Amino acid sequence: MLTIRLQRIGKKNQPYFRVVLIEHTRKVKGKYRELLGHRNPRSKETELKEDRIQYWLSKGVKPSPTVHNILVSRGIISGPKIQAWKPKKEKGGAAAAIQKDGGAS
């Protein structure tokens, strides 16, 4: 199954991303099928090939959550944004909370 996702190509502490069409089982830095745009989060510059993205979406290709949110904010697709990340769970749950308090009841 194909997916539209981000591929990081920037240096250390200088993020820069390609928006690519790639098989969802391939490695993140693997060979992609088509380059659909790029994004520079430092300068907020985003360039997308809207006609090619619309074409692939019409063929049933699903974007990653982050790319979906970019497409919604650019007005290429309509709908609500989706949560692209999940907060970390606390280690241990309730047992860890008792230990933090010192165990005094």
Strand segment count: 5
CATH overall fold name of the domain at 2-74: S16 Ribosomal Protein, Chain: A
Rg, rounded, reads: 19 Å
Structural class from helices and strands? alpha+beta
CATH architecture field of the domain at 2-74: 2-Layer Sandwich
| Number of distinct helices | 3
Q: What percent of the residues sit in helical stretches (DSSP H or I)?
A: 10-25%
Task: Report, as a whole number of angstroms, the end-to-end distance.
Answer: 54 Å
Largest sheet, in brief, is: 5 strands, mixed
Name given to the CATH homologous superfamily of the domain at 2-74: Ribosomal protein S16
Elements, N to C (H/E) = EEEEHEHH
Report the CATH C-level class of the domain at 2-74.
Alpha Beta
Average pLDDT works out at 89
Beta-strand percent range: 25-35%
Strand order of the largest sheet: 4-3-2-1-5
Shape: globular
Describe the structure.
There is one protein chain. With 105 residues, the chain is an alpha+beta fold. It contains three helices and five strands; from the N terminus they run E-E-E-E-H-E-H-H. The chain has a five-stranded mixed sheet with strand order 4-3-2-1-5. Strand 1 (2-8) and strand 2 form a beta hairpin. It has a domain at 2-74: Ribosomal protein S16 (S16 Ribosomal Protein, Chain: A, 2-Layer Sandwich). The model has no long low-confidence stretch (mean pLDDT 89). It has helices spanning 50-58, 65-74, 94-100; strands at residues 2-8, 17-23, 34-40, 45-48, 62-63. The radius of gyration is 19 Å and the shape is globular.
